[in-house]
Design a protein that fits this description.
single chain, about 1500 residues, mainly beta, 7-stranded antiparallel sheet, 7 helices, disordered N terminus
């Protein structure tokens, strides 16, 4: 098996263990006339990442722990350390994929080494950015251009304090010049020409086109990623500075968000995307980066995240294995094969064997088309149904590209082979470039047994027939194009001291002893990539396990003869049962190879065997279904419009005809010879076939369907299982569970897939009664049905099928399940373990395989939570945080403490805090309340990394009562909104909302006297879909404890910095004036609306993310909020700047078609109709859905607001029923975007921020896409509402108080008494490229701002040069010689003029009132005239001296430094160590890299220095 070498970059094991130097070598050689020469070298550390330079015997490897890079010029006979490398800094060895003389050694810093002569010499190169240490990037740092080896993309990272983001640098000169910045905030970049077979079809695009997956922000989720393409290295083409980049049209009608990876497979480019709410992914395929299409999979085999593997494919199809098994712990899959353009995938092999790492037992025989081996699970049904059943695996082989399969046999006996899921060597498992030679470890019998029970088997006819080789499992390799088969016993229990080899295709085997009776445990056996060499390399651990060896095994001396033509034979790759050559892809394939009994070696090193091809006549197997056709038996049937030729179907006559595809096409790449009429002969079609089925015309009517439910229930527990954008199906699934509110008695569970038009009862695999339903918060494909026993029913496919898993024990009813935000099958189960006398302990257990297996996390626990997430890459994916008792008992005085683990699989829980109350997560923050036993109070602490917590610093003079409560409120602006109870009276609770800085430690008062209830739910709500808009209710009479709370509503448009009353409408629904009016709202007259604390269903919101700018409220106009019984319904369409009354009384609302449809239903009143608006509330129509009056308990639709269907949840007497109301008939035309604003069905809308200069918030203005309210169309796809962002100049509002500063009553940031500001030179230490720092002003940029220029509050004081950058500082800030000249000469000149003027005006009035007096001094007198002139000049010169002297001193210092050869500092940095760079280049945050300025590294314990859930 070949080492990967130039075929791919592989990373060495990362380690911090330094190399124990060893430079003394000993070599021992054994030579035997009838055996190979064996030379061994000893190493202290594991020889890892062993690579051949292709086409040579030069080998490199890196020690896994010591980091040292070793080189052998002669196939492993001699070794030396690579010269010119600082080995202790080397962390990875990377081989160039397309240049067989180049390799790279990367450090963790920004200076690395490269070789252009196969490692003989090395020199440094500079990447500017540090090497990325993100887990998903390790091993993928460099992307090579397949046609130009000088073009390389390098993935690095830039850090500010604790937070790091990836970026990509590029070179077009193989780093002969410093790398240049390509793109920031990336998640991978690729050359379009990353594969030799792939082409865009245009030479200039092949040369420069780059694709990048770009993150939306520092804390954004993968669902927000975008795919961007650039043809000029993401640079600006025009003077306006606009970067040349664009999003490709992936799905036919626009760009697609959520791209997470790009993969090139042969001539295909694959882009995988994910979306919110679903685990199903979309796969987009392109053959040129210009046209894309979505791959279509069988409807029962969706592409699920972490459940698919792209396999080694052919030049004419893509092969993907999808995990289809129910049990995660025993994975099985289905192998799918695409047609030639990747459009449609069909089943090829069912029940393939997979492992937990998504490896699949599938491998093609090298260099031979149409042959591959696969392992299948024979007892798949038993494995699915019985958790104790083990997989029984059988090996199959195909010789016709998967159309038929047969058993692998030795004679008449079946054998089964260990494959990819049990890798025991490097490279391919079974085959090599040696024509037709295949080896594998396996066993006779019905099924595959343990690896330790296997023997070695050999085939020399590409797997058709096999013979048994040496006994026991072996590592094996091929040499001299198959003339040599080498094997070494793979024994993990006893050391071996010999090797085995065969020179006749495995018929006979010889033995050779290792030198000096050495015993070893073999690690890897390899040779050159083309298997043409007579030399092999064996790496092994000493039998004593205290060191390692590398053996060079050379067969050069066995035979002196070179093979002649008579020693060679013609070998056909595929033959039928009669031994006749078979055709695949339209040809027969033949190789020349050595006869197995020939006594010679081929001795043609580094030459790949070249096959000959002989064309065959075309047959059925040479054709596939054409685009928009799928195979149905022996036919290809259309599933979409027929593609008409250019010029056809230009009229509107549907009966016009044209000649088009037959439904079949010749498989691209197929070389068969046409004979007579072929299956792809064109046929006649009508133009109606090309244009597709006519659209269903709109009926101009609303339709409804009622559905009754049996039983005396009065409420529904309802859950939407909403599809994501990447879902291949468009059902609208709801789970409903009727119950009785008086005693919680419940009925059966029902499911609908068409938004309530039809309901079916859920069929669970068990009779245990359900007591609760939980949906996965991130993956809406999944729902869990809890029982009171140790059993949970669940669905992962929107209620189409139901399954179950067993839990460790019965659930704790408070919070039984916790989910991982990214890994849908990772759960934490909270349960109770009770003794017979009723004493219970609460336990948290964890499963990584959807309940198949459980491990205990902690006993006597309150709760555990996954805190790792892809959105917060500064925390590990496996981090969990737990709240548990200090001791494992139920005794009193057993306080809670906060525990964490960064890897729950390997690490124990560590203590983060003692004596805590509770914790909550909100966005990137973890907020904890801690108890102060002395003062009997609670204090708040915050963390972003889950390990280190810093106390919350409340505003100066902000007083908190002794007993207080905290509520973490919703936030989307990377700051904590913390509600602190401040009321003294228990029956009149209220408090203050404090807003944190970017790390959650320093708070300012946002607004006080905010209303809450006794459970500390708060009247606070953010407007969904918009930045910075929030609504609260405040208590007007906080000092009056004798009367009920008087509430007033206020709104903020700048994220809580300023609050204002809601402006009331002037007139009511009847056009009558309200009792009061104020244009902007004030204390005496405003609109007030009922808030969060008064809602029956807390899931209901004022607004919707899909209806930008729209908000409803129930309330009244006046000085305070009145009784809800007297409330009316109000609406705003401009984010709360103006309001209108839309209905009398209290109505509930729902938004559909992304805000284009608004439906209202009366609350608390019997009715038979609903009201709706299609023009954002300008006009309203009523629609009757019932003949008699009924109670509407709720009205709902998809949370995304994308549906045109709504459900009314109704009660008629004691009977529940639902009503589906379908608005789809009102229009059948989808809305269209157009560059002409008049023609477009959409408009751009930007929210106003009246308290902000020029309506800028967070340094920018957002422009949102909304459908024009007068257009009769529907939104055919999900809108990307945020259409454009325009950056603004910086203002005071773009800055917050820096660490150890707090805001005073004048709005300025003042240093806290007794504290010191952060060391300003920290900027220089974090960023070696920075040349200056500023004295602390007390301000820093807020995280969310994107402002540019203007007033930069953090740079208003004096700048200073960074140590080592004085010269650069002087050049950019110091005075030049010309400036010095003018600085000296002009003041002297002006002083002379001033002196002369004084002299001339000495006897004038000169600012005094003179009463006819004359001075007694004569201005012309020399003792007056010349001293005045001299003094004036001296004053001017003295004023200029500091500038002159300072410049001279800096010049002298710089010259002295140069004489001393002082390092300028900061240009090179080998290791990041504990000091991260702030920025990597001066322009490092240009082009989307600068919308955050987080925290300085020394910012308290929060960042780990030594010094969307609502509560």
């Amino acid at each position: 098996m070949r080492a990967r070498g130039a075929s791919g970059a592989a990373a060495s094991v990362w380690s911090t263990v330094l190399l124990l130097a060893t430079l003394l070598w000993s070599a021992s050689t054994v030579h035997a006339a009838d055996g190979p020469n064996i030379v061994h070298k000893e190493f202290e550390n594991i020889p890892s990442n062993l690579n051949y330079f292709q086409g040579s015997n030069v080998v490199l490897f890196q020690e896994a722990y010591g980091r040292t890079v070793w080189r052998s010029p002669d196939g492993g006979v001699t070794w030396a350390k690579a010269d010119g490398i600082e080995h202790d800094k080397a962390v990875a060895l990377v081989m160039h994929e397309y240049d067989n003389k180049r390799a790279y050694v990367l450090t963790s810093g920004n200076v690395h080494w490269k070789t252009d002569d196969r490692g003989e010499t090395w020199k440094t190169f500079f990447t500017d950015a540090y090497t990325s240490d993100f887990t998903e990037t390790i091993g993928r740092w460099m992307n090579f251009h397949a046609a130009d080896p000088d073009k390389i993309l390098f993935t690095g990272m830039e850090c500010e304090g604790f937070f790091c983001e990836e970026l990509v640098m590029y070179t077009t000169t193989n780093f002969e010049e410093d790398a240049k910045f390509l793109r920031g905030r990336t998640q991978g970049c690729w050359w379009a020409k990353s594969s030799p077979l792939f082409t865009t079809g245009e030479e200039d695009l092949d040369s420069q086109r780059i694709l990048c997956v770009v993150r939306d922000g520092l804390f954004s989720r993968p669902e927000d990623n975008r795919l961007l393409i650039s043809d000029n290295y993401f640079s600006a083409e025009e003077a306006d500075g606009v970067v040349q980049e664009y999003e490709p049209n992936l799905n036919g009608d626009g760009a697609v968000q959520g791209i997470i990876s790009i993969v090139e497979v042969k001539k295909y480019l694959l882009a995988a995307s994910k979306s919110r709410n679903t685990a199903e992914m979309a796969l987009f395929v392109s053959g040129n980066t210009k046209q894309w299409h979505r791959a279509i999979f069988p409807h029962d085999h969706p592409l699920l995240e972490a459940s698919y593997t792209v396999l080694e494919s052919t030049n004419y199809s893509i092969q993907i294995d999808l995990r289809t098994s129910r049990r995660i712990s025993k994975p099985m899959g289905t192998l799918l094969t695409s047609n030639s353009n990747g459009t449609y995938f069909t089943r090829n092999v069912e029940h393939t064997n997979r492992n937990l790492e998504s490896y699949v037992d599938f491998e093609k025989v090298s260099n031979i088309q149409g042959i591959f081996l696969v392992n299948q699970v024979d007892n798949w049904k038993d494995v699915e149904e019985d958790e104790d059943e083990e997989k029984k695996v059988k090996t199959k082989i195909t010789f016709d590209d998967g159309r038929t399969f047969e058993s692998v046999k030795t004679g008449d006996k079946e054998i089964h082979l260990h494959s990819v899921t049990e890798l025991n060597n490097v490279g391919h498992v079974f085959s090599s470039p040696a024509p037709g030679l295949v080896m594998g470890n396996g066993n006779h019998g019905s099924y595959l047994r343990k690896y330790s029970e296997s023997n070695l088997y050999v085939s020399d006819d590409a797997g058709k027939t096999w013979i048994e080789g040496p006994e026991g499992p072996h590592k094996y390799e091929f040499g001299d194009r198959g003339s040599i088969l080498l094997a070494v016993r793979d024994n993990k229990e006893a050391a071996v001291n010999e090797i085995r080899y065969s020179l006749d295709h495995g018929k006979t085997w010889e033995t050779a002893k290792l030198p000096n009776d050495i015993s070893i445990f073999p690690w890897t056996l390899t040779t050159t990539q083309d298997s043409s060499s007579l030399k092999f390399l064996l790496t092994a651990q000493k039998g004593s396990k205290d060191g390692f060896y590398v053996f060079s095994i050379d067969f050069e001396g066995l035979h002196e003869d070179k093979c002649k033509d008579s020693d060679m034979e013609h070998w056909y790759a595929r033959v039928d049962d009669d031994g006749e050559p078979k055709c695949v892809m339209g040809h027969k394939q033949r190789y020349d190879r050595r006869k197995k009994d020939a006594k010679c070696f081929i001795k043609e090193e580094f030459k790949d065997p070249i096959p000959e091809f002989f064309p065959c006549p075309c047959g059925d197997a040479d054709f596939e279904c054409d685009f928009n056709f799928v195979r149905d038996g022996d036919e290809c049937k259309p599933v979409g419009p027929i593609v008409a030729p250019e010029g056809a179907c230009q009229t509107n006559d549907p009966d016009e005809k044209f000649m088009g595809t037959s439904g079949w096409r010749l498989i691209p790449g197929n070389e068969c010879k046409p004979e007579g009429d072929q299956k792809d002969k064109q046929k006649e079609w009508k133009c109606s076939d090309a244009k597709g089925s006519p659209k269903r015309p709109g009926s101009d009517e609303i339709e409804h369907v009622q559905w009754p439910f049996e039983g005396d229930y009065d409420r529904f527990d309802k859950h939407y299982l909403e599809r994501g954008e990447s879902s291949s199906e468009d059902d609208e699934t709801i789970i409903a569970w009727p119950y009785k509110s008086s005693n919680t008695e419940a009925g059966n569970v029902f499911v609908t897939h068409d938004h309530g038009k039809n309901w079916t009862q859920a069929k669970f695999p068990g009779k245990e009664p359900i007591y609760g339903i939980i949906t996965h918060p991130q993956v809406k494909d999944m729902a869990f049905f809890l029982t009171r026993a140790d059993k949970v029913f669940y669905t992962i496919d929107h209620g189409k099928h139901f399954d179950w898993f067993k839990t460790p024990g019965p659930p704790d009813l408070r919070m039984p399940l916790a989910f991982h935000p990214d890994r849908r099958d990772w759960f934490i189960w909270h349960w109770k373990d009770c003794t017979a006398d009723g004493v219970c302990r609460r336990i948290a257990s964890l499963s990584k395989d959807r309940g198949d297996n459980w491990v205990t996390v902690k006993r006597y626990v309150e709760k555990c939570q996954f805190t790792g997430s892809n959105a917060y890459r500064f925390r590990t994916e496996r981090q969990i945080v737990c709240l548990a008792r200090t001791r494992e008992d139920n005794e009193p005085n057993n306080p809670l403490r906060l525990l964490y683990s960064d890897d729950f699989l390997t690490n124990e829980l560590d203590v983060a805090l003692d004596d805590v109350g509770d914790f909550a997560t909100m966005a990137e923050f973890i907020v904890v309340t801690a108890k102060n036993k002395t003062e009997d109070t609670l204090s708040a602490l915050a963390s972003v990394n889950g390990r280190d917590y810093a106390p919350a610093h409340f505003p100066y003079n902000f007083e908190v009562p002794h007993t207080n409560e905290y509520t973490v409120l919703e936030s989307s602006t990377h700051a904590i909104n913390l509600f602190v109870e401040t009321s003294e009276e228990k029956n009149r609770p209220f408090g203050s909302i404090l807003k944190s800085n970017s790390n959650g430690t320093s708070y300012v008062l946002s607004i006080g006297a905010v209303n809450c209830d006794e459970d500390f739910y708060v009247d606070f709500e953010k407007m969904l879909g918009l930045e910075g808009v929030a609504v609260v209710n405040t208590v007007e009479n906080i000092n009056s404890d004798s009367e009920p709370k008087r509430l007033q509503t206020k709104i903020s448009h700048n994220d809580g910095a300023n609050w204002a009353f809601l402006p009331p409408p002037e007139r009511d629904l009847d056009d009558n004036k309200f009792s009061c009016y104020s244009e902007t709202g004030d204390e005496s007259c405003a609109l007030h609306i009922h808030g969060y604390t008064e809602r029956v269903d807390h899931r209901k919101t004022y607004s919707s993310e899909s209806a930008i700018g729209l908000m409803f409220g129930i309330g009244n106009v006046g000085p305070i909020l009145g009784d809800i019984k007297d409330a009316d319904t109000f609406m705003t369409t401009d984010a709360g700047l103006s309001w209108k009354m839309v209905k009398k009384g209290a109505w509930t609302w729902s938004f559909g078609d992304q805000g284009s449809i608004v439906v209202l239903a009366q609350r608390g009143t019997k009715t038979k109709s609903i009201s709706y608006s299609l023009d954002r509330g300008d006009t309203w129509e009523d629609y009757a859905f019932s003949e008699d009056d009924v109670d509407i308990t709720d009205i709902t639709t998809l949370r995304s607001g994308s549906s045109r269907n709504f459900i009314l949840w109704c009660l008629r007497g004691t009977k529940l029923f639902t009503v589906n109301v379908d608005f789809s008939g009102l229009t059948s035309e989808p809305c269209k975007m157009d560059d002409d604003p008049e023609k477009s069905d959409y408009e751009l809308w930007s929210p106003k921020h009246p308290m902000q200069p020029e309506d800028c918030l967070f340094g920018h203005k957002n422009y949102y896409l909304r459908k024009k309210k007068d257009r009769k169309c529907y939104n055919g796809r999900k809108l990307q509402h945020l259409f454009a962002v325009e950056n603004c100049e910086c203002t005071r509002q773009d800055f917050e108080c820096d660490y150890n500063f707090e805001m005073d009553k004048h709005g300025q940031c003042k240093l806290v008494d007794g504290l010191q500001p952060l060391d300003p030179e920290q900027v220089c230490r974090e960023n070696p490229d920075e040349f200056e720092y500023y004295e602390p002003s007390g301000f820093r940029r807020i995280p969310l701002t994107t402002c540019k220029g203007g007033f930069e509050a953090d740079k208003v004081l004096t700048p200073h040069p960074c140590p080592g950058h004085e010269e650069e500082f002087d050049r950019k800030r110091g005075a030049s010689g010309v400036a010095i000249f003018f600085a000296v000469v002009i003041p002297i000149g002006l002083a002379s003029l001033a002196g002369w003027w004084v002299y001339r005006n000495w006897q004038s009035n000169f600012g005094q009132i003179r009463l006819g007096e004359h001075s007694s001094l004569d201005s012309e007198a020399p003792w007056i005239k010349y001293p005045v002139v001299a003094v004036s000049a001296v004053v001017a010169v003295i004023g200029a001296l500091p500038l002159l002297l300072g410049s001279l001193w800096r010049s002298a210092s710089s010259a002295l430094d140069r004489l001393r050869n002082r390092d300028s500092g900061g240009r090179y940095s080998w290791l990041r160590g504990s000091s991260q760079r702030r920025f990597t280049t001066r322009d490092s945050f240009a082009r989307g890299r600068g919308d955050y300025a987080i925290v300085d590294e020394d910012e308290g314990e929060l960042l780990g220095d030594d010094s969307d859930e609502e509560v």
